[in-house]
Design brief:
There is one protein chain. The chain is an alpha+beta fold. It has a domain at 20-178: 2-Layer Sandwich (50s Ribosomal Protein L5, Chain: A), CATH 3.30.1440. The chain has helices at 6-22, 51-64, 96-110, 166-176, 185-197, 234-241; strands spanning 34-42, 69-72, 87-94, 131-135, 155-161. It has a 5-stranded antiparallel β-sheet. Helix 1 packs across helix 4 (166-176).
Amino acid sequence: MSYQPRLKKEFNERIVPSLKEEYSYKNVMMVPRLKKIVISKGVGGAVADKKLIDHAIDELTMISGQKAIATISKKDVASFKLRKGMPIGAKVTLRSERMYEFLDRLITSALPRVRDFQGIKPSGFDGRGNYNLGVTEQIIFPEIDIDKVNKISGMDISFVTSANSDKEAQSLLSELGLPFKKSDFKSKLSEIKNTKTEKPVIKNESPVEEVPVVEEVKDESPVEEAPVVEELSEKKIIKKNK
């Protein structure tokens, strides 16, 4: 009997019947499947040092178990000193048995080694049933020797499925073992948008009656003005006597 990976056997025996029952598919061929996994890595420093491309190819080859290839730039970019046809990254495409083997190693050994790992974000779907996962450090894979690493760098892992919607693709990948976060960020964003669009409700409060301010008037007795007596000067008195 030929070799069959663990996840592929589990997919055929357990996952296909459960998804068929969950989404009530009429035929087994309507159940979404994982087509391929693409691991890609950009190397911006390869413009100055071409040896970095060789290191990237070797790392992807060790991680995936399949020979990686270099990706070539499609146009000239003067600001980055990039010319058309220069190697600028590396990638590898996995299918069938190697795809399931890599996915098994990713779930069981690589993701648990991520620092403060709390699950992968469910917001990486593209709307057509494909999921993109970003890895910041390549040293999470046990195949990489830390002492031989030239530079800490990340990579992108794309899961291409035959699902028609993101919900079906998420159900497929979660059944295969990818640990998605329990809290859905899309639902939180929709709740925040709904709260922003809602108009504030103004309550009909009864107007508060203002209490009239009464000024206290004190009964003050009128002050009598003293009569002003004009003092006649001595000169006026002398003139009168004359």
